Amino acid sequence: MSPGRQRLLALGLLAVAIGLVWLAVVQPVADAFAEQDARIGELHSQLIAYRARMARRAIVEMRLAELKSHEASSTGLIVGRSPEIAASNIQTMVKTMIESDLGQVRSAQNLTPATSDGFQRIEIQYEASVPMTRLKDVAYRIETNVPYLFLDGIDLRAPEGWQFGGAQVDPPPLEVHWTVRGYRWTGPQ
Length: 189
Hints:
The chain is α+β, with helices and mostly antiparallel strands. It folds into two domains: 53 residues; 103 residues, Ribosomal protein S6/Translation elongation factor EF1B (Alpha-Beta Plaits, 2-Layer Sandwich). It has four helices and five strands. Strands 1, 2, 3, 4 and 5 form a five-stranded antiparallel sheet that branches. A hairpin with a 2-residue loop joins strand 2 and strand 3. The mean pLDDT is 87.
């Protein structure tokens, strides 16, 4: 081989070696630095967002204190941001009270809420089955509940002929139809 070709071959091998070193070492390191720079940029953006949230913390805490003081002043009122949520809260409370005295809620129907002077009346009509011996306890528990609930439109029905010829039979459950009413604050209108 001639000396010119040897030089060319040596230069070619040197270029291939440099290319392999570039691909095997330099390029992965450069890619890793680029990924780190991108990640640092993302983290910097998140840090700016967190600092902005922390700057609003005092305002949020002040609003929370205001809401808590309003809530404390309205102890007997139903909690709920909407009439539907307030009605759901009432239904949960009443169902728990009836079932704790071995009763059963058969149906609950929300009635149209009415608003007057910043208060919204939330009413739910119930059909329930309550043991005769427990009716007084259920009614007492509902009417002494906090938040305040009120019973209205009460209709009771006992099964006909549940006492047979003077024989002592356990009292049957009563069919109870009543409306439970509660109030929630909506603010001045």
